[in-house]
Structure formats: C-alpha cells, structure tokens
Design goal:
A seven-stranded mixed sheet has the order 2-8-7-6-5-3-4, with helices on both faces. The chain has a three-stranded antiparallel sheet with strand order 9-12-11, with helices on one face. 38% of the residues lie in helices and 15% in strands. It has 13 helices and twelve strands. The chain is of the alpha/beta class. The protein folds into two domains: 150 residues, Alpha-Beta Complex (Aspartate Aminotransferase, domain 1); 234 residues, 3-Layer(aba) Sandwich (Aspartate Aminotransferase, domain 2). Helix 3 packs across helix 10 and helix 5 crosses helix 9. The N and C termini lie far apart (44 Å). The longest helix is centred in the last third of the chain and has 22 residues. The structure holds pyridoxal-5'-phosphate (PLP). Pyridoxal-5'-phosphate binds next to helix 5. The site of pyridoxal-5'-phosphate has 13 residues, from helix 5.
C-alpha cells in the first residue's frame, strides 16, 4: 500500500474533537453525553432565514462567485456599518467559515518558516492551520491568575525575531472569554506598526460581550488599514455553524487579492449557506439581544457552579461562550477520556476539551479544560453535576 504523507501523519489533532470516538462509544453503550467540548450552540437558527431558503424558487444550486454572492456582500457592508465599521464591498471576501479565512490569510501573508505571535491559550485550530501553512506560532502566555489579560507590549517585543511577520489575537477570546479594551488594542496597534507586521483579529464572537464590556473592532484602529485582517463568521452569531459561511475583511487590497486567488481554486463558498446568512442579517435585532442574554445566563450558571467545586480555579468570561478552568488534577487529557470511558453519573457524563491543545507551549494547560456553555440551563446544570461528581470520584481513585 502506498504510504500517506508525513504532513498527514503529523497533522495536528484537534483537542475539540479528538475524544469523539470515546464519546460515540459511550453513547452506543447507552450513556447520555453532554457536549461541552465544542462551540456548537443549541439555540435556534432564525426561523425566517430557513423559511426564506426553503421557499425560494431554486432550479439550480449554482456556484457563487469566488468572492461571495454580491447581494450578500452588500448586505454585509450594512451589517458592519451598524457596528460603526465603514467598509466597501470589495473589502469583504466571503469564505467557507472563518476557518477558511484564517487558513487563506496565513497562506497569503506568511511564507513558510515565518513567525506568528499568538497569545496563548488560543483557539486550538490555529495550531493546525499554522502547521499546514508551514508557519511557526510563537506563543505569548496569558495566565489564569491575571484573568488572561493581554500581556504587556514589552513581552510582545521579546517574541520578535527576524522571521516575525504577524500577530494573531481573538477578541472576544475563545477559549478565555477575555474582551480586550481599546487602550490595549491601541498599544498592540503601535507595536504592529512599529515592526510593520500584519495584525490578524478573529472577531467571530463580536456580538457576545457581557456586563460592561464594549467591543472595539480592530478595523477601527486608525492608521492600521494596511495591517489588519479580520476573520468573521455567521456560525455562532446566528447558530449557523453548518452553513459554512465566514469572511476575511481587510482594507489591504493586496491581501484580499491574494486570498481571492486561493478562493478561486475552491470555486465558491456554499451558495445555500450565503442565502441563509443574508436572510439571517435581516432578522430583527431582538434575535441577537435574546441570544446574548441566553449566553450570559448560561455563563453565570457555569461560573457559579465551577467556583463552588473544590480545587477548581476559573475566571468569569466577559465574552464569547467558554470557561477555561484549572482542575485539581495533573492530566486533564486523561481525565476527559476517563469521563467518557469509565465514568457515569445517573447514566450521564460530560465531554470537555482538554486545555493543553489550546497552547503552543507543550508543557502548559495540562490540568486545564475548556467548557463551552452552549446548552440550555437544565442540561448545563446536569453537566455540572456530572463534573462535580466526577472530580470527587477521580480524586478518590
Ligand atoms: C475563535 C474562532 N474562530 C473561528 C472559528 C471557526 O468558525 P467557522 O465555523 O466560521 O469556521 C471558531 C469556531 O469555533 C472560533 O471559535
């Protein structure tokens, strides 16, 4: 049999899904598994958007233009305007989820061997795309004790090398729930400008900021027009994960032209997904207000329950829909697998994402987990019961 490539053999294993075979076995054995491992919301997609696509008179499901359906891109201009971000249609390129925007941006802006500074823990999938693109992630560690605040610019300076080409942040942050204040972003902007770097900002959780947090888009950082590339998505905003529609947004025409070259190779982002996304943007504001309120309630519940578990350390997320927590154990990878393979509480268990995969530093995150609060309050409560009991049983082993 011909052998598969080294690239494939060493491909990065997503911590979000790598325990799925164990979850499937647990379910086949009759256990109920609460999925807190993945950011797949249970909230309903706007009904009117689904109905609009169901009732449209389609004869052929055609390719869309590589850059995206024109009416959808125009609609996106108004969407950004409603967030006080002024853009033109040609500054927005529709992609197959934010995932593709990330991948194409890395391919477009960095040569193999060049370096990308990323505060860790970070959205684990960046590791995978960086690996395929041959780009080296240089992590800059944020700590739970400092509420995962963005490190000082002096620490970013220490990460610089002749190969540094870009900085990537996620705001609001997956997995930490941090929302970065405008002053911190301005400091980072000055750093990026000084060293002539790209600034990639993953803003897929833009709408989900809680309490007194105000979201500030990197697209509004003055003087950074040529540096900033924003990754966006409708997956979380409208519970449209399966539509596979995102965007790469930038005022740097050369970057977008380069991404378009890659986009032409894959011909088109899903045309049905774009129709859904366009219809979802016409949804009254109430939809997102209610969505955000639901996540805030879920966050409060999970944070409250975690805070009361002996030995668990966590931080109140200010945005997105994840809690990153340190558990009183040495090997969260083992614990998460044990939860699925061996543990059950009243016929139920919980699936979590082990923390280590959200770091580029190999020794970090070993006792940490990411918990996505994407289920209804009742299920979340039961999932927290499972976790609380599991921690007790595991510690007595
Ligand atoms: C921070 C972040 N960026 C990008 C993505 C990928 O989004 P999409 O479904 O649009 O590919 C996710 C999905 O969980 C995410 O959390």
């Amino acid at each position: 049999m011909p052998s598969i490539s080294n690239r494939a053999t060493h491909a990065y294993a997503s911590p979000i899904r790598k325990l799925s075979p164990f979850a499937n076995r647990a379910k086949a054995a009759g256990k109920q598994v609460f999925h807190l491992n993945i950011g797949q919301p249970d909230l309903l997609t706007p009904r009117s958007a689904i109905t609009r696509v169901q009732t449209s008179n389609l004869d052929v499901i055609a390719y869309a233009p590589a850059e995206g359906i024109p009416s959808y891109r125009r609609r996106l201009v108004s969407y950004y305007q409603s967030h006080n971000i002024e853009l033109t249609v040609d500054q927005i390129l529709v992609t197959i989820g934010a995932s593709e925007a990330i991948f194409f941006s890395l391919l477009s802006c960095l040569n193999p061997g060049e370096e990308l500074i990323v505060p860790e823990p970070f959205y684990a999938i960046y590791n995978g795309f960086a690996q395929i693109a041959g780009v080296k992630i240089v992590p800059i560690t944020c700590s739970l004790d400092a509420s995962f605040a963005l490190p000082e610019i002096a620490d970013f300076e220490k990460c610089m090398s002749p190969c540094t080409k870009a900085v990537l942040i996620c705001n609001p942050n997956n997995p930490t729930g941090c929302v970065y204040p405008p002053a911190k972003l301005a400091d980072l902007a000055a750093f990026v400008k000084k060293h002539n770097l790209f600034l990639f900002v993953d803003e897929v959780y833009r709408e989900f900021c809680y309490d007194d947090q105000v979201f500030f888009s990197a697209l509004n950082l003055p003087g950074l027009e040529e540096h900033v590339v924003v990754f966006d998505s409708v997956s979380k905003r409208f519970s449209l994960c399966g539509a596979r529609v995102g965007a790469a947004v930038s005022r740097n025409a050369a970057v977008l032209a380069s991404i378009v070259r890659f986009a032409r190779l894959r011909l088109s982002a899903p045309s049905l997904g774009q129709m859904l996304a366009e219809a979802a943007l016409e949804e009254p504001a109430d939809y997102l207000i209610a969505t955000k309120a639901a996540y805030r309630e879920r966050r409060d519940l999970v944070f409250d329950r975690l805070s009361k578990m002996p030995g668990v350390k966590t931080y109140l997320p200010k945005g997105a829909f994840y809690c990153f927590a340190a558990l009183p154990l040495a090997d969260a990878d083992h614990f998460c697998q044990w939860l699925l393979e061996e543990f059950s509480w009243e016929g139920k268990t919980v699936m979590l994402a082990p923390g280590n995969g959200f770091y580029a530093s190999p020794h970090l995150g070993k006792s940490e987990v990411r918990i996505a609060f994407v289920l209804n309050l009742e299920d979340l409560n039961l999932a927290m019961d499972c976790l609380e009991n599991a921690l007790r049983v595991y510690s007595e082993k």
